[in-house]
Amino acid sequence: MKKTLTLSLALGALLAAGAAFAAEKAVDQKTFEENKTKKEWMSQGGEREEALHLAPNKENGKDVYEVCSACHLPEGWGQTDGTFPQLAGQHRTVIIKQLADIRDGHRDNPTMYPFALPSEIGGPQSIADVADYISGLKMNPENGVGPGTDLAHGKKLYEDNCVRCHGAQGEGDNDKFFPRIQGQHYEYLLRQYQWIKAGKRRNANPDMVEQIKNFTDKDTVDVLDYVSRLKPSADMIAPVGWKNPDFK
Ligand code: HEC
Ligand code: HEC
Q1: Residue 47 has what pLDDT?
Q2: What pTM, to 2 d.p., does this model score?
Q3: DSSP H or E stretch at residue 3
Q4: Where would you tag: which of 97, 118, 187, 248 has the fewest CB atoms within 10 A of its CB?
């Protein structure tokens, strides 16, 4: 059942393998295409509710995470260039929601989709387990940041438009499914933000879409540049060069 990806594969080879995998799974791809009409911030029913109420099994969470680690890295730190987001330290509810949304077609993620299906990693219990494991990982001390051109403007925009949901330090809110955005790679923040603004991320929060609809390109760069430099609390950050001993 479980996909065994060789972690030592070069990233390029890995992406090629991922694409080949996706091509093989013609049925999944068909479902994926059909899902493209789904647009809803909080879908009804489905795996999210179930997973939220299950007691997590950390040991199984680690086993499930093995397949994820091929892209998100064993440390959960993702890539500085934003190809793969950092997952480490993200709120449990946010991981559960995003994973359930990707699986049920409310959020497009063709690269990851075939690896995240129930047939690959299991049902709601596996979602609960892997979310618990990921949220406990310490975060990347050296995430990718923006160009630093106008941080004062970014700060002002952040305080006026984002604090009420993402918090003063970008810490988000576990109870409300608001993502932690502090310490995330700038390039990933930028891509998601643009997709949310354009309606391409179909599970986006409508109040956020409304809040940012008049942002210019400069506003966007400045505010996310500022966000990428917001630091998580010291106890959430791993030492530079830390390697996850669970995946030696
Ligand atoms: C083949 C590579 C690949 C694999 C394997 C993979 N992911 Fe991903 N994942 C991605 C990419 C790429 C994105 C960002 C997609 C985007 O830009 O919308 C992502 C995004 C996510 C997100 C959303 C993060 C956010 O900030 O909203 C979550 C949660 C996630 N992955 C969890 C997992 C879990 C759990 C697994 C293992 C079951 C996994 N991923 C396996 C490539 C992968
Ligand atoms: C009304 C609440 C609200 C406001 C205001 C808001 N956001 Fe969000 N934001 C959210 C929620 C909820 C999500 C996750 C949506 C989902 O489930 O897909 C999100 C997602 C994001 C993401 C993607 C994070 C990820 O891990 O994928 C970024 C980046 C972001 N917001 C930045 C901002 C910035 C910058 C501002 C201010 C200019 C802002 N948001 C204002 C609620 C808000």
Answers
A1: 95
A2: 0.91
A3: none
A4: 248
